[in-house]
Amino acid sequence: MIKDSLDDLLFVEEGSSNCFCSEDCIEKFYGPIIAHYSNKINKLRKDLNLLEEDALKLLEDSSNIEKMLSKPDEIWRVENQLKEEIYTYIKKITKGDKTTYLAALCFVFNKSPSFILGLTATSNEFFLQQFQIGEQVESIDEYYGKQFADEYQIDPELLEQIEFKKSQYLANHLELRSEVDIPFENFELYVDYIGQTLDAPDESYSAQDEFSETFSTFIKAFARDGISFFYIVVCMQITSEEGAQVIVPVFSFPTIDGKLCDEYRRGEQLTGNLKN
Question: Exposure winner among 27, 75, 83, 112, fewest CB in 10 A?
Answer without folding.
Answer: 83
